[in-house]
Amino acid sequence: MDQENHWNQVGKQYEDEIFDVFKNDKQQLLPRLIRKYAGNTKHAIDFGCGIGKAFPLLAPVFKSVLATDISTTCLKQARVNDYENITYKKADLSRPTLRFPQVDFAFCCNVIMFPEYQKNMQMIRNLHKVLKDSGAALVVVPALESVLYASLRMIQWYGKEGVESKNIPQAELAYYDSNTVNLIEGIIKINGVPTKHYSEPEIQWLFGDAGFRITALEKIEYGWKTEFDSPPKWMGAPFPWDWLIECRKK
């Protein structure tokens, strides 16, 4: 897939097509954790900024923010804001030759999710490379355990309505590829696009290999309405989630 063209097309309807992590964060973990690493002398990077959803959390609490994305369309929208301490740079974040000034803090929200392992690993390495030795990163990635769990709750829901699992419409499971290897690798289709999802032990392995020390691994929980149009009232906790990785250079 031509990622630049894909995200340029998505950028035209970003609000409709891209899940809003900031709006749906039930416990408001992101604002709290970003403030934890903030400082008026510190420099930050929004690594895959999209249309700038994180700017209201980053710009007021850091001296400067470098906003970077592969999409010209997204960056054009991102520039429409009132913050004077943000600079912008178009870049393919999966390129081995990527070079940025080193920063104190990096934020990366649902960007490292190519179906190709090497591209994801290179982005994690680039994230490591852009940090100062004392720097920290917050990284959000889709959780494989969550999508499997949500499917299990859907099967339970059908069962309560008298529908056996073998009779569940295939359209309800369209995000799973028939390729077993893809499922093992965590490749799940979102709106028909193969998207990498991560398991907890895989996160430990990949970020460790890239030179990070994970200091915390938490769940950004969302309501069931993010998974189903009209979830039943009995469907409560545990809720679906993305993984939120706090890490530093080793």
Q: Could you explain how this protein is built, in words?
A:
This protein has helices spanning 3-11, 14-17, 21-24, 29-37, 55-58, 72-78, 117-130, 144-160, 180-184, 200-209; strands spanning 39-47, 62-69, 86-90, 103-109, 131-142, 187-190, 193-196, 212-221, 241-249. The chain is of the alpha/beta class and 250 residues long. The chain has a single domain (3-142, 198-249), classed as Rossmann fold (3-Layer(aba) Sandwich). A seven-stranded mixed beta sheet has the order 3-2-1-4-5-9-8, with helices on both faces. Strands 6-7 form a two-stranded antiparallel ribbon. It is globular, with a radius of gyration of 19 Å. The two termini are 34 Å apart.
DSSP strand (E) fraction? 25-35%
Per the CATH scheme, the topology name is Rossmann fold
Radius of gyration: 19 Å
* Shape by Cα distribution: globular
CATH architecture: 3-Layer(aba) Sandwich
Number of strands: 9
